[in-house]
Amino acid sequence: MAKNNVGRNRLVVGAHYGLKDWMAQRLTAVVMAVYTFTLLISFLTGDNFSYEGWAQLFSQQWFKLFSLVTFAGLYYHAWVGMRDVWMDYIKPVGVRLALQAVTILWLIGCAAWTVQILWSV
């Protein structure tokens, strides 16, 4: 009897990133949208549009943490997207791994810079 490779019996190979990263990208997109909405409301209801006004907003601990969580979500969102681009379009394994490593290092650097900026206010 021939083995049927359809439905639940289908053989799936690969890294199995699918649903988990799809959900993570949707969640990080929602976090970024809520942050953008919060920033927009703060801007529209604020009366001090100078550097001091923005520094006052970003000096509050809750807003620093909200910003940090949002940027961490942005970096993860970017990582998933770029990893998929590299996996889909760069076929030589060595080049793909090098590009993934450069992407990871760049995003880690951006995350460190984000922390430095947020906690310097």
Automatic annotation (TrEMBL):
Membrane topology qualifier: Multi-pass membrane protein
Listed cofactors: heme
The UniProt record lists the keyword Signal: no
InterPro entries the record matches: SQR/QFR_C/D, Succ_DH_anchor, SuccDH_FuR_B_TM-su
Pfam families per UniProt: Sdh_cyt (PF01127)
Keywords, alphabetical: Cell inner membrane, Cell membrane, Electron transport, Heme, Iron, Membrane, Metal-binding, Transmembrane, Transmembrane helix, Transport, Tricarboxylic acid cycle
Pathway: Carbohydrate metabolism; tricarboxylic acid cycle
Keyword Heme: yes
Transmembrane region(s): 27-45, 65-85, 97-119
Record localization: Cell inner membrane
Functional summary from the UniProt entry: Membrane-anchoring subunit of succinate dehydrogenase (SDH).
Xref: PANTHER family: SUCCINATE DEHYDROGENASE HYDROPHOBIC MEMBRANE ANCHOR SUBUNIT
Name of this chain's protein: Succinate dehydrogenase hydrophobic membrane anchor subunit
Gene name of the encoded protein: sdhD
